[in-house]
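[scheduler] slot 2 assigned
[scheduler] job type: sequence-to-structure, two independent chains
[scheduler] chain ordering preserved from manifest
[runner] begin chain α
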Amino acid sequence: MPISHTEENYLKVIYQQAENSKKAIATSTIAEVLNTSPAAVTDMVQKLYEKGLVVYQKYQGVGIAEAGRIHALKVIRKHLLWEAFLVEKLKLGWEEVHEIAEQLEHIQSSLLIQRLDDFLGNPAYSPHGEPIPDAQGKSTHKVSVTLANMEVGSSGIVTAVREGTPQFLQYLSKRGIYIGAQVNVIEKMPFDQSMDISVDHFPKVNISQKVSDNILIIP
């Protein structure tokens, strides 16, 4: 069953939204994520439903069907493997690779992707710390907490980031924060919940609550 690039993008978004919610996903939410109109989403969801890739009932929202889940995980696997290749082998910055991987994730050759996975040493996590599904769709999740929930005096290792925009990743890079960095919480400000931290034992930097909410730590 042929699936277009656009349909793959929809499946990926519906799967990711479904992972974060126990409820059916509103078409307005999908429209917001994909920056398109609710009418366009409704048309596409209907097509995906007819192909057996999503669960859909008018006015009730959208869910991911098993066939759609399998396909979405394949697309996510390709995307994250390409990100790893671009960062590790081509030495691009972690803030540069998302848009390129968005294009490469639609390559259909399963042989190429398996060879890419083997070439990279079968990585379990992307440069942003996201679990990479294996060929069977299974992935390993680390037990982590947000930096915002760390207590003063505690420390841990940065394991992932929730926000993947280039602007956010550039912000982290300028402050020396990266996957694998050791972070120590020095002080929390009661007024706005910002915090002073040290990264890899270097002098402290101040970050906002919005930033600390988007950094995941293994204590």
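[runner] end chain α
[runner] begin chain β
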Amino acid sequence: MKSICFLAQFPPPMHGLSKAVETLYDSRLKEKYRFSKIDITDNKRILQTLWALLRCKTDLVYFTPSQTVGGNLRDLMFLKLIQWRGLPCLVHIHGGYYRQLVDHDCRYWQRRMNYDVVGRLAGGIVLGHSLHGIFERMLPDEKIFVCPNCVDDVFIAPSVDEKMERLQNTDGPLHILYLSNFIETKGYREVVELARMAQEKGAAGRFVFHFAGKFFDAAEEDWFKTHTRGLDNVVFHGVVSGQNKVDLLRQCHLFALLSRYPNEGQPISILEAMGNGLAVITTDHAGIPEVANADNGYACSKHSIEVDKIYEYMTACYENRDVLSGVCRRNYETTKRKYTERQYIDNMDKIFESVCKR
């Protein structure tokens, strides 16, 4: 039985990366590989992490690196130590910014160190084929693997039949959901603008806008409160999880994430929305087009987000519910077929097998 040591962030806190790591670590692959872990969530424990790596005995290190300049310096220490010890290392990039970071944000010496350590890796994993360029000219093609994100099974609806029947047979409002952190480049401000546009056009009764997520910046929270004041078609839910999150996803019909967030990879929130029968309004940023494009709802250029055209699409959805329900059902079936936990674990198993054979 091959041993694999996870050098990664584990919950808490719970976010896309830590959840993906936990899902893999607790999976059925524990019966096939001998898993161990070194939790790097707390940067204050860096000396303990280095000591653990010095003592680590494993056939493969599975590492999820940072995408910041400071975090990259830490990661270079880890990778240099791993390679000094002669341990094969598989790196999994859970975002889309690493290459931009290395080529444009790092100083020359740090960039050269990255090229050196990456060139010696056993392999690198990206979230989609469109992100293959993260490792181009750093690793040979046979060492670059693709593994899409997945949706936690609890956040995939057992069925959308009843939801689609209600959507087609009633003329009630469409519910639009923004579910992400409140960061300007995630596109929440454009969704607020859509809500204001609906109210000003006298169509507030057609659309209800739901916002859920966390504020990291007081200025962002102030902006949101100021610009949603007086909008009767806006509901703010704060941070949602568990059954509250399930209920919110199953209530809504359209999901809006107009992202151009620099660190974006392949948002799990989009997959969760699709797994509950929502049409998706998004951009062509990072790895998003591989999971959501015009076939899944409405997709625009991240360089040209025209709110009035998005509003026209929403209006078309309201007026032609048969077409909308067809998109929603297709998104649900695609998620069940391609983005379940089972698919994710199967994909990772194939990658582990391929790397371990070498």
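[runner] end chain β
[qc] chain β: The chain has a mean pLDDT of 96.
[scheduler] slot 2 released
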